[in-house]
Amino acid sequence: MRALVVVSFASACLLLLLQLAGASHVVYNYKDLEAEAAAATDQVPPSIVNPLLRTGYHFQPPKNWINDPNAPMYYKGWYHFFYQYNPKGAVWGNIVWAHSVSRDLINWVALEPALRPSIPGDRYGCWSGSATVLPDGGGPVIMYTGVDHPDINYQVQNVAYPKNVSDPLLREWVKPSHNPVIVPEGGINATQFRDPTTAWRGPGPEQWRLLVGSAAGSSPRGVAYVYRSRDFRRWRRVRRPLHSAPTGMWECPDFYPVSKGGAPRAGLETSVPPGPRVKHVLKNSLDLRRYDYYTVGTYHPRAERYVPDDPAGDEHRLRYDYGNFYASKTFYDPAKRRRILWGWANESDTAADDVAKGWAGIQAIPRTVWLDPSGKQLLQWPIEEVEALRAKSVTLKNRVIKAGHHVEVTGIQTAQADVEVSFEVSPSALAGAETLDPALAYDAERLCGVKRADVRGGVGLFGLWVLASANRKERTAVFFRVFKPAAGDKPVVLMCTDPTKSSQNPNLYRPTFAGFVDTDISNGKISLRSLIDRSVVESFGAGGKTCILSRVYPSLAIGKDARLYVFNNGRAHVKVSRLTAWEMKKPVMNGA
C-alpha cells in the first residue's frame, strides 16, 4: 500500500516543507495543511501507525506536534522543560509553551501549558525563548518571541515571570503589561528577529546581556544581536552584533562558557567571564540548512564581540549533531555542575503519516556537553541518568569479524536498547585504507552518500546494523570508514548512519548522515555507542566527538522482530574488543 499523499504537486511540496521546517517559524495555513494531510491518511501503511514505532524513553507528550526545546532549567530541586507544542493536532500550528517537570531528566510529569497567546505582543504566537534564573532567590525569568501581526509575521521579544517564585513546579506564569520589551528597531528585519538566549551578567551598570538571532543584508548574513538591561524591562541594543557570518538567518542562538582543561564533563554557569581557562561557544540554528552549527572562541565582554578560534570556523563550522537534530538549547545544571544540551528531532515521514498516528516530533536524549581537551571542539554524551533504564544485558568479548561477515547479537530484545562497542583494527591494516577523494575532504555527508553501507571498503566500513529484520532486508547501518588522506599521514575517520534500507515503506525521507571524527586511530581503536528507541537511533562516535541522530520507520523490524548485528564490509578483519547491549525500560513519560 502506498503512503503517497494524493494532493496537488504544490500542496505536496508545502506538506513536505511543513515537516522539515518546524522551527523556522514560517507561518503556514495550518487548517488547510491539516485537512489535506487528514484526507490522505487512508493511504498510510499500517506499520507507520503501529504503536511499537512510538519512542519509549525519548521525551515526547502523549500526542500531537512538538518542536523546539525552550527554557530548560533546574529550580528548587526540579528540572523544568518547556517546548513548542500544538495541543490540537500533529502538524505545526496553534503553538503554546507546554511544560513538564522531572527529578532526574528521564521520568517526566506534564503540567498545564506555561504560555499561551494572550497579550498584544504574542497574540499570533508564543515562539521560542530561554530562561534565566536570577541570583539571590530572585526566581526565573523567561524571555520569548511573540508574533503580534498575523500577516507580516512581525516578531517582538516578551518577558514572563512566575506568579509564585516559591512554587518549585512554577505552575503559573505572568506577562507584565510593559510587554513587548524588545522590538525590531534600527533597520532590523522584523520577520527574522527571534529566539532570545539565556541572559548572562557582564561588566557595567546594564549588567544583563542576551542575544537575539536575526539576518542582515541581502545575502543575508546571520547575526547575533546583543541587548543589555538592568532589570529585564528596559533593553538597549549594542551597536555592533556579537558576531555575524554569511550563512543566512541565525535562529535559536545559544552562547555559553566552557572550561579549558577542567574536570571531565564539568560545566560552567552561564555568567562565568572569559579568562585563560575559559572559552565560549556560539551556536546557531541555520534556517537555510536545517542544522545546528557552533564555533569555539573568545568573548570580549567590554567590546561585546566574539571571535572564533578557527578563522575558517564560519565556513566549515562544527555541528552538535550530523543528523536530524535542530533548534537546540543548553542550560547549566547547578545540582551536578554540568551543562546539558537538548535538541529536537523532527519526523522523517509525511504529514499524512503523522496525522494518522496522532503525534510528531521527539526530543533527543539530553546530553552532557563539555570542551574536548584539545580545545577545538565539544564532546557530548548521554546524561548518566539514562543508564538507570538499562535492564537485561548481553556481552561479546574479543570476537573477530572477518572481512565481509557479520555476527548477530542475541539474548535481548533490541528495538529499545543501549549498545556500547569497542572496535580494534590491526595498525598494520591501516595501510590498506582507501585514499580520500580531495573533492570530498570537507563534505562528510556527500562522502557517505557515495560510500554507503553496501559499498565495500578497505579498512571499514564496520559497525552496527540496528533495527534489522531477520532477513536483513531492513536495516539501519551505523559505521566507521577509514581513509588515507590525500595529504599528510593522519588517517581520516568517517562516521555514517545509512538508513536507506531501514524500511520497506515508500515516501520516507531517508538521507545518509555523516561527520568526520577528529580522532587518532593509529592504534587501531575506536568506540561507538548507539541508543535505539523504535523509530530513532542516536549514535556517539569516539567518546562523543561525532554524534548522529536518525529517524527510521521499519515495516518489518518492529518490536520483538527487531534484530541487532555487528558487521564488517571492509577488506581487513575487525575485532570487537567488547560489546555490551542492554534492553531499555520505559520511564514515566508525561502520562503516555
TrEMBL record:
Gene Ontology biological process: carbohydrate metabolic process
Record's keyword annotation contains Hydrolase: yes
Domain Glycosyl hydrolase family 32 N-terminal: 58-382
Residues in the signal sequence: 1-23
Entry keyword annotation includes Metal-binding: no
Domain (Glycosyl hydrolase family 32 C-terminal) ranges: 385-583
GO molecular function: hydrolase activity, hydrolyzing O-glycosyl compounds
Keyword annotations: Glycoprotein, Glycosidase, Hydrolase, Signal
Family note: Belongs to the glycosyl hydrolase 32 family.
Protein name per UniProt: Cell wall invertase 2
Source organism of the structure: Zea mays (Maize)
Upper classification of the organism: Eukaryota, Viridiplantae, Streptophyta, Embryophyta, Tracheophyta
